């Protein structure tokens, strides 16, 4: 494994442990040249999943896009990064476990909204306002009323 600090190609594994409910392995490594430590993650290579966009185009599934969207919605909210990672892992697992090689982007959006509703209601409303493209304040209020109705 190439050292991110000095670029040396040899490192030794100091510690290994399973993460994400056994779906990946976290490894602490030490560079044999500069002796600095770094972390790597190893996971099973999944089948390539294509996302079908609203306009009909297809692109590769990108986990980072989901993370960025959730982080943007959770900005300045008391949501731990570990909770975001767990939510993204659950979304990714749900998509992978379907066995399909293609997924519609709206399905991903709905899964993100479900997880955001569990994480933080404000982040959920922020995401929903962009995802559902609220046209005016009334459509925004309708979504808030749905949330309030579920709480009662």
From TrEMBL:
Binds 1 zinc ion. Keywords: ATP-binding, DNA-binding, Metal-binding, Nucleotide-binding, Repressor, Transcription, Transcription regulation, Zinc, Zinc-finger. It comes from the Bacteria. PROSITE patterns: ATP_CONE. GO terms for molecular function: ATP binding; DNA binding; zinc ion binding. A zinc finger (unnamed) spans 3-34. Pfam families: ATP-cone, Zn_ribbon_NrdR. InterPro entries: ATP-cone_dom, NrdR-like_N, RNR_NrdR-like. GO terms for biological process: negative regulation of DNA-templated transcription. Residues 49-139 form the ATP-cone domain. Its cofactor is Zn(2+). HAMAP family: NrdR (MF_00440). Negatively regulates transcription of bacterial ribonucleotide reductase nrd genes and operons by binding to NrdR-boxes. Belongs to the NrdR family. This is Transcriptional repressor NrdR. The gene is nrdR.
């Amino acid at each position: 494994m190439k050292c991110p600090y000095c670029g040396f190609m040899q490192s030794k594994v100091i510690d290994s442990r399973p993460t994400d409910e056994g779906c990946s392995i976290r490894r602490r490594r030490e560079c044999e040249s500069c002796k600095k430590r770094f972390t790597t993650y190893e996971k099973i290579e999944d089948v390539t999943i294509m996302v079908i966009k609203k306009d009909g185009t297809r692109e590769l599934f990108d986990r980072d896009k989901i993370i960025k969207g959730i982080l943007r919605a959770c900005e300045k909210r008391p949501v731990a990064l570990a909770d975001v990672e767990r939510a993204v892992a659950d979304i990714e697992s749900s998509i992978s476990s379907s066995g399909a090689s293609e997924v519609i982007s709206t399905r991903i959006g709905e899964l993100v909204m479900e997880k955001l509703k569990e994480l933080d209601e404000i982040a959920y409303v922020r995401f929903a306002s962009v995802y559902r493209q609220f046209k005016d304040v009334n459509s925004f209020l309708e979504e808030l009323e749905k949330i309030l109705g579920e709480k009662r």
